[in-house]
Amino acid sequence: MSQGPYRPASVRARVATQEDLPAVAETMARAFFDDPVWAWAFPDPGRRLEQHRSLWRLMIDSALEDGGVWLTDGAAACSSWIAPGRPELRPEYEELVEPLLLDLLGPAGAARVLETFERFDAAHPHDEQHYYLSLLATDPEHSGRGEGMGLLAENLARIDGEGMPAFLESSNPANDHRYERLGFVKCGKFELAGEGPEVTQMWRDPR
Predict the structure, then answer these.
(1) Where are the domains of the chain?
(2) What is the pLDDT of residues 162-181, one digit of tens each?
(3) Cβ partners under 8 Å of residue 105, min gap 6
(4) pLDDT (tens digit, 9 = 90+) per residue, 150-162?
(5) Fewer CB within 10 Å: N-end or C-end of the chain?
């Protein structure tokens, strides 16, 4: 029997405020703890959770001003979108990244993560305006309930309303099919330094 069209879970989503920053950073840190890319970039499991909290807090804080951070009830799922033509990090936050990474990881570890960011940026499409899904996370305690894909579908409906495309990088191959069910298609890939993992680029035209 053939399956019908994919219908993501219905969720209650809202734009995050500054008060939500700790909860969103915690969800991001927990969700990316075992991620192939971000576990590789922060290889010490004993320190990784706190390191992730610090990094994602900085990145989320930068995106809050533009209203690009969304969450479901209890921050079970969170997303961070960068609007067309906007930098992923505002200049005053970008200046904080290297000192933060040096403090968290030391010179060698900081260099590895900075090069990872550079490879992401170099592979990013710059020839067409689009919304960029910088981060999407579901708290592991809520995994399997469709919250993350429900939030993504809610976000994409708004982006479709503007007639804009969307772009993301998938740092975990296990998630690729989930994005494809919502209309993303693979459009490229790149590898990280040394024996680092592979990242898949995905594009979605408006519907």
Answers:
(1) 14-204
(2) 999 999 999 999 999 999 99
(3) 42, 51, 112, 113
(4) 999 999 999 999 9
(5) N
